[in-house]
Amino acid sequence: MFRRLRWIFFGLCDELAHNLLPSQQICDVPPKRVLVTGGTSGIGEATCRRLGANAIVGGRNMTRAREIASEIGASCVRVDLSSPAAAVASARRARAFHPDVLVNNAAVMGKSRSETMRVNVVATAAFTRALGAPVVVNVGSSSHLRAQRFTDPKLLADDTKDDLRAYAASKLCLMHYSQLLREEGVCVRDCHPGIVWTPMLKEYLRYPNLVEATGLRRLLFKHPAAAATSLLTAAFLPNNLTGYVVHNRLQPPTSLRISPAVHDPKAIAWTKENILKEIYTT
Ligand SMILES: NC(=O)c1ccc[n+]([C@@H]2O[C@H](COP(=O)([O-])OP(=O)(O)OC[C@H]3O[C@@H](n4cnc5c(N)ncnc54)[C@H](OP(=O)(O)O)[C@@H]3O)[C@@H](O)[C@H]2O)c1
């Protein structure tokens, strides 16, 4: 309870302060090939644009993926995460591009609970496993700190519209998946980009035009290009460094910005046995 109150106060102050500061830029993008899922919109698109020719734009909308790829001189590949089977087929296509880094950026928010868990966790895990990239960045969210009742397997079958509870649960379960990958020796970083003005967020807000017109957008939300810096920081840390990038800084696991549930062995085992069952039994 005390931890949660502390997070509400310090966490929100930190998000706000970060949005007001000018974003730190990465000077050189190393010549590594980075596959970004959901590379056709928001933070993913901004990340691909920053990577330029080193990007592999992963998108389910191939017209848009080709458009972006040709503008920046990059490659593109169809990545569909609507089901684990579609994700595995997408990974088979993507393997031909030999990515050095996979950025699991694609996600949904505000859809049904089952779609949220399927896209954000199960299909993302199936894609990661079938691709086998040496470095993985899982795009999380500070919402994982508020994940409650994530130990409910019904989330995978519940078609009720999500009130952000499934989204928060999905981001916590994705961090559990990161822990499982670390145990397998994969170099994984979780990245929390902050609160960012993107189509996902605008779709969820009731009055996005009002937020824009009153100037609150600039005060409260980061630009996707600033969020891209966080993803690239996570992607290009030296290989021996693993952990959690919040905004543009690597955090210790005990940080106030990381839920203790991420490291709880029982919670990790629960996610493996219930949410990721399909991935670990095939
Ligand atoms: N915006 C924020 O404030 C915020 C805060 C914390 C974390 N994040 C995280 O940042 C990441 C990017 O979000 P965003 O805000 O940039 O949202 P966005 O603009 O809506 O981008 C989401 C991307 O995911 C793709 N996608 C959705 N369902 C898919 C599926 N079934 N198969 C393949 N691709 C699919 C979308 O494809 P289409 O282009 O075809 O729709 C889109 O390119 C997400 O992981 C999100 O949870 C965002």
UniProtKB/TrEMBL annotation:
Q: Which domain of life is it from?
A: Eukaryota
> GO molecular function, one example?
oxidoreductase activity
Write down the InterPro entries for this protein, in alphabetical order: NAD(P)-bd_dom_sf, SDR_fam
Q: Which UniProt keywords apply?
A: Oxidoreductase
Q: Which family does it belong to?
A: Belongs to the short-chain dehydrogenases/reductases (SDR) family.
Record's protein name? SDR family NAD(P)-dependent oxidoreductase
> In which organism is this protein found?
Chrysophaeum taylorii
Organism ancestry: Eukaryota, Sar, Stramenopiles, Ochrophyta, Pelagophyceae
